[in-house]
Amino acid sequence: MDDNSTTSQVTNDPFASVRFPEYKNLILGRFTFITALRMMSTLVGWWVYELTQDPFAIGLVGLSEVVPALSLALYSGHVIDISEKRRLLLKGVLGYICAGSVLLFLSTPFIHNRVSNYAITYCIYAVIFCTGIIRSFAGPIFSTLIAMTVPRQYLQNATTWSQASWLSASVTGHAMGGFLIALLGNMGTMIVICCLMIAAFFILTRLKPKAATQQSGRTWESMKEGLRFVFRTKELLAAFSLDMFAILFGEVQAMIPVYAKDILKVDPIGFGWLNAAIDIGSICVVVLLTIAPLKRAQGKKLLLAVCGFGLCIILFALSKWFILSFFALLIAGMLDGVSVVIRGTVMQLKTPDHMRGRVSSVSSMFINSSNELGQFESGLAARIFGVRPSVVFGGIMTLAVVVTTWIKAPALRKFEY
User: Fold this and answer.
1) Which is higher by pLDDT, 338 or 240?
2) CATH code for the part of the protein at 12-206+217-413
3) How many Cα atoms sit within 13 Å of 3 on the Cβ side?
């Protein structure tokens, strides 16, 4: 069978990549693990606000994680490329299990009856700082492993399924986090989170060992090589930069506990739905794109999607009604889903195998860390301007980022795959 026939079959079969057993184990393990992490982030945001009644305190959660994650990102990419990846991934998941166990201990009545709220909050920050160190290594490995579990012609389909599983896990984790806080309280929710992390560990042990893709060499030169590759590849650089600044300014997740409690006046279940709304929208679109992939003008569609995302954030900021707020976030998530799929596909298609760890780590510097920086920016802006004006400001800045990228990055605007 010729290559064109094979490619056509891959394109026409939306389940092509998940027919590979090892890829299926990777996706299932990632789904379980990300569900646990999203539940933990939901719980921590609610818990810290409950302890402090201060939106800025939620912002400090993001800063606690992003400082080590950002500081170690380039080094972790080098380590991933020279390491056996399955072992490194399992060590990272074990590290998260340990961190979750400490949070579980902090949530017990034994601690709450003996330690002040502010002391508990500082302990939570310390644990989140440690998870930032672990995440700098564990996070990029998942992206690196995608190309090692399916043939290259399946990469676009595999990337879409990967994003779908990640977003599905986010929906599940955010929604379940809110519901479990209402049903089981903080300690009960942390028990469920720890059990999910342990389950993910055992699923991921079924992966085959993945040898180093680069010989150990001079660390600093290897780190610089990853950065140089991204900065030379204009489509990658523009896509990463667009997402970084859009998330940095448009990040609204951190303020949802404040909106739920103080503005929309809803209970933890309503908070869970609001917290999951963006991811629900995203997964709906990603499932649609898995069945019917975007065919043309993907770069232009990426820019338009981020523009729509900014408008939805402004609408959410001004809304006083739960239903309107929910649907504003839902549509924002649908548009974000388009962005996630296009950016993920660009990265997988443009990155050579021997540099996947370093490029994934640079991606985490630009994109994943901007979630936590955006969380800190939201908390800081809320303290300076007030909650509503800070979210409106974020939406407006997202629109400004799109306009700037449209003008300054024609390579991304014209990109197709």
Assistant:
1) 338
2) 1.20.1250.20
3) 3
